[in-house]
Design brief:
The protein is of the alpha/beta class. The chain is built from 16 helices and 62 strands. The chain starts with a helix and ends with a helix.
Length: 852
């Protein structure tokens, strides 16, 4: 045994010792000493009462209903003082002489049944030795008591009863073996009948109660089994079976094929820590099956093929920490099944082929942290199935061929952090399907699949009233991997097989593939605020016109917008990332991705949902594995880019079909982005660049996205037109300023001016620089002219506006020299830029407002 296993073994031993020590402490507080059996409370009532019995003035035990005046309530001391054979009350000395009253040296007196294994000062009694001779005297007394016990009306209780309690009164007894009455004589295959009240008792060795018929209400609350407890094929036919707060700490708790037909089966807060708990084929037909806050920490908890037909099955806040919890083929048809806040931390939770037909099934806030959750072919036909805020952190969640026919299926705010969520061929025919606010690190497969017995794609309609049956089959993706499928139907859409009246996925986060292939959404599906970090497959879907995509985010889509005025540093990082993504094959992400949350951020969110109890190490390991796989797929932009392109193309066509022009443009943009990503090399060494997408196609697609946001933004086109206008205006102005000035007009010469004087005046005048000369000649039109010229050329690039711009004579006149050629070149470049921008502006305008 390695150190880790030894440490775990030591921890379990220490926990067992602590539990048993706490039990003994509570037992001693009840005071089952001989004097304590007769003690009264502060109100003068017996602490340990013998229900329905009184002691008459002449010292006889009689039924309270027949007791004479002056009788007092009987105590357990009176029960053990009475001789079961003669009915006479025995003295203390008589009991001592019969070895039934034990007084160890320095200790309180105890009836032999209540003598503890060790006294409070740790002094052992004979019961510390299971082979001691005194056990014979004890078991002879037990046999005598069993012979004189009898049936008790099942309404007998501590607070209200009908008749007297004729059960054997072993409350607080410390026994070696389970009391076993003889079988009725002359009755073939008859079961021994036992009428027992044994609250707060302890069994120091294995307790064999197999095939016993408990013909009266069974009270075994707060008992301790230090060995295995065998109740297989036992019948609890006389009333309730009460095991509340019982401790099965020494071995198995075996209730195989037990029948609880007389009343409620009460195991609330029971601790089954000694070994496996077997309730296989158990039948709970008499009333509730109450396992509230029960703890199955010793091993497997097996309820496979159990039948809960008598009432509600309550497993709320139960803890399955010892191993797998097996409810395969269990039938819940007597009432609702309540697993609210249960914890499955010891292993897999198995509900394969289970049937919930008696009422709703409540798995709200359940934690599946110990392993996978298997609900294969489960049937929820009795009411709604509620898994809201459940955590599947130990492994995958498998609802293959599950049938939700009794009502709504509610998976709101569920966390699938341990693996994929598989709803392969599941049928949602009872109501709406709610998946709002889910967190899924793996794939969520919600495809409809093919109908069983039909060709692919065929819909089979039924004329039978209320018939909602349907079948589906498994398919494969383009890459050959299995695809899990789902078929959602509702009463409101029975005419169309596979239709879904209401589907809500709002604010969900899905890190794997979300597959809705072949779905029929017959009313408004809600995808508001969903973040699809992976693929979103809607192939073959019939989409309702009222679909809501508000604030939904997709892979390759635009990110959540930052604050209105981001800092310069943040803006520079975005520009830097964009430029590097253009240049490098494995460059950082462009700023059009959904921010992938960090490992710590997600794990903190999952732990907060788990509460104070926390999650086991296996859940953290499973989370790390699932997170790493999802992060690797997300970081590799080229991986499955062709499948993303196909997904977005389908969504584009679906949006066009229902007339959602804005969403059509959005998915068209995503399609182009995914197509560009196909040129990125995958992470695997044997995967090369996708040559179907040429470099020129990718470049022009990027330009189209940069200029118009793929036809979605008019303001971006106008911005680029403004840039071209300002750049061209500045170029025209620079050419005009640097061009030779126009010849100055000839002024008339005065009569008194001589040529010598004129020349002297010209030599004395300072020479203007080119800007001053230009401004002096053109005036205000010299500045506004190039700006207006550039604007006209940008807006209407097919015309030559030079005729009404006199400043252009400087660039086209006989003195222009080489500026005429530069002017022609700038105009050519201007037109080459302005023509596509004008075309893209008109195209974007048309697409934006669907102008025919």
């Amino acid at each position: 045994m390695d150190d880790q296993a030894q440490k775990q073994s030591d921890n379990k031993a220490a926990e067992k010792a602590a539990r048993e020590a706490a039990w003994w402490e509570h037992w001693r507080e009840q005071d089952f000493s001989w004097a304590g059996l007769a003690a009264l409370d502060a109100y003068g009532r017996p602490k340990h009462r013998w229900i329905g019995w009184s002691v008459s003035p002449d010292k006889r035990c009689v039924e309270t209903a027949k007791a004479p005046e002056g009788s007092r309530p009987a105590t357990l001391q009176d029960y053990f003082r009475q001789d079961p054979d003669t009915g006479r009350m025995r003295s203390d000395q008589a009991l001592r002489d019969a070895s039934l009253l034990i007084g160890d040296t320095g200790q309180a007196d105890f009836h032999i049944l209540h003598l503890p294994e060790t006294h409070a000062d740790r002094t052992p009694s004979f019961k510390a030795d299971l082979d001691a001779a005194e056990w014979g005297v004890l078991e002879e007394e037990v046999s005598r008591r069993l012979v004189h016990s009898g049936a008790t009306d099942k309404t007998v209780s501590m607070y209200g009863f009908k008749g007297a309690d004729h059960r054997v009164q072993f409350t607080g007894a410390i026994l070696r073996r389970f009391p076993r009455p003889p079988a009725p004589a002359k009755v073939e295959h008859a079961r021994p009948q036992l009428h027992l009240c044994a609250d707060r008792s302890a069994w120091l060795d294995n307790a064999d109660a197999s095939r016993i018929d408990f013909a009266s209400p069974l009270s075994m609350a707060t008992v301790l089994f230090k060995g295995s407890a065998y109740f297989y094929q036992a019948q609890f036919s006389g009333g309730y079976a009460k095991f509340n707060q019982a401790q099965f700490s020494g071995g198995y708790a075996d209730f195989y094929h037990a029948q609880f037909s007389g009343g409620d089966a009460k195991f609330n807060q029971a601790q089954l820590s000694g070994g496996n708990a077997y309730f296989t084929k158990a039948q709970f037909s008499g009333g509730y099956a109450d396992f509230y806050h029960a703890q199955f920490s010793g091993g497997y908890a097996k309820f496979n093929q159990a039948q809960f037909s008598g009432g509600d099955a309550k497993f709320n806040q139960a803890q399955f920490s010892g191993g797998d919890a097996d409810f395969n083929q269990a039938h819940f048809f007597g009432g609702y099944a309540n697993f609210n806040q249960a914890h499955f931390s010891g292993g897999d939770a198995k509900f394969n082929q289970a049937q919930f037909s008696g009422g709703y099934a409540d798995f709200n806030q359940v934690q599946f942290s110990g392993g996978c959750a298997d609900f294969n072919q489960v049937q929820f036909s009795g009411g709604y199935a509620k898994f809201s805020q459940a955590q599947f952190s130990g492994g995958y969640a498998d609802f293959y061929h599950a049938q939700f026919s009794g009502g709504d299926a509610k998976f709101n705010q569920v966390q699938f952090s341990g693996g994929y969520a598989n709803f392969n061929q599941a049928q949602f025919s009872g109501g709406n399907a709610y998946f709002s606010g889910i967190l899924a690190l793996g794939d969520v497969n919600l495809a409809r699949g093919e109908l069983s017995g039909t060709e692919a794609g065929e819909l089979r309609h039924s004329n039978a009233p209320g018939d909602t049956s349907a079948r589906a089959s498994e398919g494969t993706t383009q890459s050959g991997r299995d695809v899990s499928q789902i078929w959602l139907t509702t009463p409101g859409a029975r005419a169309e097989a596979g239709a879904l009246a209401s589907f809500k996925l709002g604010n969900a986060r899905i890190f794997g593939t979300a597959d809705f292939s072949d779905r029929v959404f017959s009313s408004e599906p809600d995808f508001e605020g969903v973040k699809f970090f992976g693929r979103s497959s809607f192939h073959g879907v019939s989409l309702h016109e009222g679909v809501r995509w508000k604030m939904a985010r997709f892979r390759f889509g635009t990110p959540m917008r930052p604050r209105r005025f981001p800092g310069w540093d943040r803006a520079w990082r975005q520009v830097d990332a964009t430029v590097r993504s253009w240049l490098g094959r494995k460059a950082p992400h462009a700023p059009d991705y959904i921010p992938f949350p960090s490992r710590e951020e997600l794990w903190d969110e999952i732990e907060r949902r788990a509460g104070d109890g926390g999650l086991p190490d296996k859940a953290r390991a499973q989370f790390n594995e699932t997170y790493d796989a999802a992060k690797a797929r997300f970081d590799d932009r080229g991986l499955e880019a062709n499948l993303y392109e196909s997904d977005y193309r389908t969504l584009k066509r679906l949006s066009a079909k229902i007339g959602a022009s804005a969403e059509e443009q959005r998915f068209f943009a995503l399609e182009l982005k995914a197509r560009q990503a196909r040129r990125l090399t995958g992470r695997s060494d044997d995967e090369g660049r996708d040559t179907d997408v040429t470099a020129w196609e990718a470049v022009f697609a990027r330009l189209y996205g940069a200029v118009t946001d793929y036809g979605q933004s008019l303001t971006r086109v106008l911005g680029w037109m403004g840039v071209v206008w300002l750049a061209s205006a500045a170029s025209y102005l620079a050419l005009a300023v640097t061009a030779p000035p126009l010849p100055a007009p000839q002024t008339p010469v005065a009569l008194h001016q001589t040529p010598r004087l004129i020349g002297a005046q010209e030599d004395a005048s300072p020479t203007d620089d080119r800007w001053t000369a230009y401004w002096r000649q053109e005036g205000r039109t010299g500045l506004l002219g190039p700006a207006l010229y550039g604007l006209e050329m940008t807006v209407v690039p097919v015309v030559n506006p030079g005729g009404h711009h006199p400043w252009t004579r400087r660039l086209e006149g006989p003195n222009a020299d080489g500026h005429a050629y530069w002017f022609a070149l700038v105009r050519l470049i201007h037109r080459l830029l302005a023509l596509p921008l004008a075309f893209l502006f008109l195209l974007t305008l048309r697409r934006r407002f669907q102008i025919s």
